[in-house]
Amino acid sequence: MFALEKSTSAAALRHSLLIGVIVFVACLIGILSRLPGTLAVFWPTNALLLGLLVRSPRSATVPMWLCAVGGYLAADLVTGGSIESALWLCASNMIGVVGGFYAFRWVAAEDRRLSSIRSVGYLVSMTMVAAAITGCVGGAANVVLFGGTWSAGWILWFSGNLVNYMTIVPLVLTFPSLRPEDRDPEAVVRVLRLSVIPAALLGVCILLEWVIGGAGAIAFAMPALVTAALLTNVFVTSLMTAVSTATTLILTADGHLGTAVAGLSAVSASVRIGLALLATAPIAVACVIHERRRALDALTEAVMLDDLTGALRRDEFMRKSTDAIESLQSGLPVSVLMMDLDHFKKVNDTLGHRTGDTVLVAFADQVRRHLDHTALFARLGGEEFVVLLIDTDLDEATRTAEIIREAQQEQSMTTLGELGPTVSIGVACSPNGDADVASMIDCADEALYLAKKFDRNCTVSLTARS
Fold first, then answer.
1. Which residues touch 412 (CB under 8 Å, ≥6 apart)?
2. How far apart are CA 64 and CA 56, in angstroms?
3. Which residues contact 40 (CB under 8 A, 6 or more apart)?
4. Pick from 364, 406, 403: nearest CA to 383
5. Alpha carbon of 363 to those of 274, 355, 385, 402: distances in Å?
6. In this structure, how many other beta carbons lie within 10 angstroms of the beta carbon of residue 83?
7. Nearest to 391 by CA among 444, 353, 334
8. What is the b/e burial string over 211-250, where b = at least 16 CB atoms within 10 angstroms of the residue's CB?
């Protein structure tokens, strides 16, 4: 136990140090964006730290906060800042992150992942809170360090942090999981393919922004970002929004857009706030599309799948089976397994329908464990199920049926004893794949009838007629 606690503490400390390093590097990136006599044009640190903490609240430990403070101070000091300046700027940055983190604690975990249009409202509200809190200390820093007014400092820090939060936080919250079990290679390839058009369009928009310039150029990227929202997902849209916003800030600061200003910030508060609010539009569209896709997927699943066992419904099975056989290479065998749980009514009458439902779910899971991805599995009704096996001859289909039968017998005896239902299975095979689905089901049903007649808990195989 002591060794486990020691290992956990060491892991937590390494995680805190990693956060400190991330803060330090992000601060250096922001410091490098400073023009002579100004604060950073783009400061990703606060938003990056807030996003990481909102995504993983357990990371917010005392060592983590201390390491984050160390990262802020070290970055200012190694780049020539005074200790007084470093402390004020660190306080301004940290107070906003802390305030934003605890504000986000009021938001449900699902909404923190930007899973619906409601999430965007929370995102805007919470980031405004964080930016406003930052402005309170930033205003004081403006008075002490730069001899300005508190109100001017507040609007400077508020606008700067708001655009950074609205740009970086969505990117961190929607960043794909790196765990192998959460990855879907086909989905990744599909998103990358769909990202080509909006990425190319964004490149064209940024080029036009640089060539044409002017105040209106801050909205040039909007068609590309909306296209990304419609075609891809929230993460890709957030990534392209971040690239667009950072590029616009840089082009504004160096005078390409004709809206640069003199003072602590080379980009006016108006432009910063405008960019922050513009960033909400494509993210909101992406969230709406994501929510719509989820609703369509749920509706499709409800239509296609049996709501208890997750097996295909009869109509969907017939459609998919017909398509699979028609697309099959000529001469390959196809087999059908008809399965019926023995004495299932006795389970319902003796132990209740809830136990009966549990038995059906367990049997469906058992069957799926012994099928490959090419097989089609459906519940025809009650305790009757069917499987279509592609490129499977009669002997192989019979072996599969026997494996399922034996597994069901063992599982039933283990969980319900003598009341546990066994399964009778009828197998039909079309050796050349030239029989239609309906005739194969009829043949398998005939074999199932014989299995029931032979005192159940057995497999009977027949060859389907063309």
1. 359, 420, 421, 422
2. 12
3. 30, 31, 33, 34, 160
4. 364
5. 58, 12, 10, 14
6. 10
7. 334
8. eebeeebbbbbeebbbbbbebbbbbbbbbbbbbbbbbbbb
Which of 406, 461, 455, 409 shows the shortest CA–CA distance to 430? 461
Q: 291: closest CA among 343, 353, 234, 346?
A: 234
**pLDDT tens for the 466 residues of the chain, in order:** 444 445 557 777 888 899 999 999 999 998 888 777 677 888 899 999 999 999 999 888 999 999 999 999 999 999 988 999 999 999 999 999 999 999 998 888 888 888 888 999 999 999 999 999 999 999 999 999 988 899 999 999 999 999 999 999 999 999 988 777 667 778 888 989 999 999 999 999 999 998 888 888 888 999 999 999 999 999 999 999 999 999 998 888 887 776 655 566 778 888 899 999 999 999 999 999 998 888 888 887 778 888 899 899 999 999 999 888 888 767 789 999 999 999 888 888 888 989 999 999 999 999 999 998 889 999 998 899 999 999 889 999 999 999 999 999 998 888 888 888 999 999 999 888 777 888 899 999 999 999 988 888 899 998 876 6
Number of helices (H), then strands (E), belonging to the chain: the values are 16, 5
Residues 104, 127: Cα–Cα separation, whole Å: 9
Nearest to 335 by CA among 457, 461, 459: 461
Angstrom distance (rounded) from CA 128 to CA 32: 26
Cα distances (angstroms) measured from residue 196 to each of 35, 176, 207, 240, 348:
34, 19, 17, 12, 55
Secondary structure (3-state) at 376: strand
Q: How far, rounded to the nearest angstrom, does the alpha carbon of residue 276 sit from its chain's CA centroid?
A: 24
Q: How far apart are CA 142 and CA 88, in angstroms?
A: 9
DSSP state for residue 370 in the 8-state scheme: T
In the numeric block, which tokens belong to residue 428? 């039909």
